[in-house]
Specification:
Number of domains: 2
Radius of gyration: 23 Å
Distance between the termini: 18 Å
CATH architecture of the largest domain: 3-Layer(aba) Sandwich
CATH superfamily of the largest domain: Zn peptidases
Shape: elongated
Protein name: Amidohydrolase
Order of helices and strands: HHEEEHEHHEEEEEHEEEHEEHEHEH
CATH class of the largest domain: Alpha Beta
Mean pLDDT: 98
Oligomer: single chain
Largest sheet: 8 strands, mixed
Strand order of the largest sheet: 1-2-4-3-5-16-6-15
CATH topology of the largest domain: Aminopeptidase
Low-confidence stretches: none
Number of helices: 10
Number of strands: 16
Helix content: 25-40%
Strand content: 25-35%
Length: about 375
């Protein structure tokens, strides 16, 4: 990677870090990325509202290859002292999406200057953290006849600057599930005259170990209770409303669907016994991220040709990633580059993206673009 291009990418990363924006509110971030590409490249820019993409049109135009970066931040305070620290209280880049976007821009500089025999598409996506972004951007695939798509994530707990790959499922499917139950209020001295969800919601919680037992599932299946809310702080009133919030997660979407159905069926049955109304709500929905072996083999090939160290992962990450929306439509692969085995984990106060990963990722992408 050209030294000047790397310097520009790092400077851009620091700018993005200082101006973090939450999912679906990335107005400044998106415009800054567009301005950077307009200033430093001759790429075509296609603005799609909350997201955009840039295009390098090759004279040869053999294939249409896409590369994706996300650019949203997290609702977390910046707790470490950085010269480019977040200017916005309660919002910071604690997952490294600033680095992903800066990398894609650095890659765009290299392709614009040095050329490529394939048409290269640079997709800049909003709202990865909530799972909204890729679902909205997936129309990009068919509209541009994309042949293949690649992406990467920085990953703590993995060897520094080492590329990590896996065939098949790379990250679990998940969603936020809320069960609402409503009965009837009564005076606290006459609980028998009311209908209280406090007796039904624990039955659902108690069922979780049986539903997630490895003996009845072929892959990892998890259900984390994140919040329970029953009644109010009013000692004269018997509770009548309750909500149980859970994150449900599975290696395979079919088992996630089964877990969801089991929880819904049990909640309905317990609600019916007591005469409760019940309803369900879902948010932050992520598909399983599945890598195509043909595409992952290309990552392996590039690493071998460029002398980039590579490790084969033995299992998928439990955390979710919305890149799977793309690989449901077209072949592609999502890989990881290590921050270091002892580096602060993603979504922690101590974390900051490591700038030295940019060049590794750009070199990998350059190799993939040329195949």
């Amino acid at each position: 990677m050209e030294k000047k291009n790397l310097e520009l990418a790092i400077q851009l990363r620091h700018e993005l870090h200082a101006h973090p924006e939450l999912s679906n509110h990335e107005v400044w971030t998106k415009q800054r990325l567009i301005d950077f590409l307009k200033e430093h490249t001759n790429l075509e820019i296609v603005d799609r509202g909350r997201w955009f993409y840039a295009v390098y049109h090759s004279k040869a135009g053999r294939r249409n290859v896409a590369f994706r970066a996300d650019f949203d931040a997290l609702p977390m305070e910046e707790m470490i002292d950085l010269p480019y620290g977040s200017k916005f209280p309660g919002v910071s880049h604690k997952c490294g999406h600033d680095g992903h976007s800066a990398t894609l821009c650095g890659f765009a500089l290299e392709i614009d200057q040095k050329g490529c025999e394939n048409n290269v598409y640079f997709l800049f996506q909003h709202a990865e953290e909530t799972g909204d972004g890729a679902a909205e951007c997936s129309v990009f695939i068919k509209e541009n006849n994309i042949d293949e798509i690649f992406g990467w994530h920085n990953m703590s707990g993995c060897q520094h600057k080492v590329v990590h790959v896996i065939d098949g499922t790379a990250q679990c499917a998940s969603k936020g599930m809320t069960i609402y139950m409503e009965g009837a209020p009564a005076h606290a001295s006459e609980p028998e005259k009311g209908i209280n969800p406090a007796f039904a919601i624990p039955k659902v919680i108690d069922s979780i170990p049986a539903f997630t037992d490895s003996a009845v599932n072929k892959g990892v299946v998890l259900c984390s209770v994140v919040h329970v809310d029953i009644g109010a702080k009013a000692f004269g009133v018997n509770a009548s409303k309750g909500a149980l919030r859970m994150t449900i997660r599975a290696l395979y979407e079919e088992e996630l669907d089964r877990l969801q159905k089991n929880l819904e069926d049990l909640a309905k049955a317990e609600a019916e016994k007591l005469g409760l109304k019940v309803r369900f709500e879902y948010q932050d929905e992520f598909p399983e991220t599945v890598n195509h072996k043909e595409s992952t083999d290309k990552v392996r090939q590039v690493c071998k040709e460029k002398g980039l160290p590579i490790v084969e992962m033995s299992e998928a990450f439990r955390a979710s990633e919305d890149f799977g929306h793309y690989t449901k439509i077209i072949k592609g692969s999502y890989c990881y580059i290590g921050n270091g085995e002892d580096y602060p984990h993603l979504h922690s106060y101590e974390y900051d993206f490591k700038d030295d990963l940019i060049e590794t990722a750009v070199e990998l992408f350059k190799g993939l673009a040329a195949i």
